[in-house]
């Protein structure tokens, strides 16, 4: 009977740990949340650009707004175990992009690769964002 209790306790602990383990997408999303605030820099054409990040919708989405020569918005959110990004480009397209975890010897970081798109993408379709 004691071994059965011990085994059930171990199984319960393992299930609880698995339930609270974060996926790579969740970890990346939480890391993106730390960018909340306003950031200033220089765009590709040498003009000043301001980017702001804001956590919204009770923590389920992150809005990034780019203010510069062209104003644009990017929304980040989780879809199950995927980190999705929808970029509302000044050129009028809305590429939807899936984040993927990239691991190097020194660090892990998210990269975004075009996976789902509303229009064909090329560097010319949203040049200030690329």
Commentary on this structure:
The model is unreliable at 1-19 and 120-125 (pLDDT under 50). A hairpin with a 4-residue loop joins β3 (61-67) and β4. The protein has helices at 2-20, 24-33; strands spanning 37-42, 48-56, 61-67, 72-79, 82-88, 96-103, 108-116. 12% of the residues are buried. The protein is built from two helices and seven strands. The protein has one domain (22-126). A seven-stranded antiparallel sheet has the order 1-2-3-4-5-6-7, covered by helices on one side. With 130 residues, the protein is α+β, with helices and mostly antiparallel strands. 22% of the residues lie in helices and 42% in strands.
What distinguishing features does this structure have?
7 strands, alpha+beta, 7-stranded antiparallel β-sheet, disordered N terminus, 130 residues, 22% helix
Q: How would you summarize the topology of this molecule?
A:
Elements: H1 2-20, H2 24-33, E1 37-42, E2 48-56, E3 61-67, E4 72-79, E5 82-88, E6 96-103, E7 108-116
Antiparallel strand pairs: 1-2, 2-3, 3-4, 4-5, 5-6, 6-7
């Amino acid at each position: 009977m004691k071994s059965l209790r011990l085994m059930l306790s171990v199984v319960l602990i393992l299930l609880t740990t698995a339930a609270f383990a974060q996926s790579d997408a969740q970890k990346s999303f939480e890391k993106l949340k730390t960018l909340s605030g306003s950031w200033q820099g220089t765009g590709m054409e040498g003009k000043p650009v301001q980017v702001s990040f804001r956590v919204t919708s009770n923590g389920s989405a992150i809005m990034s707004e780019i203010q510069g020569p062209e104003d644009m918005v990017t929304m980040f959110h989780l879809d199950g175990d995927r980190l999705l990004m929808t970029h509302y480009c000044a050129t009028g397209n809305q590429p939807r992009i899936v984040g993927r975890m990239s691991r190097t010897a020194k660090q892990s970081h998210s990269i975004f690769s075009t996976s789902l798109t509303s229009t064909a993408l090329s560097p010319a379709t949203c040049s200030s964002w690329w």
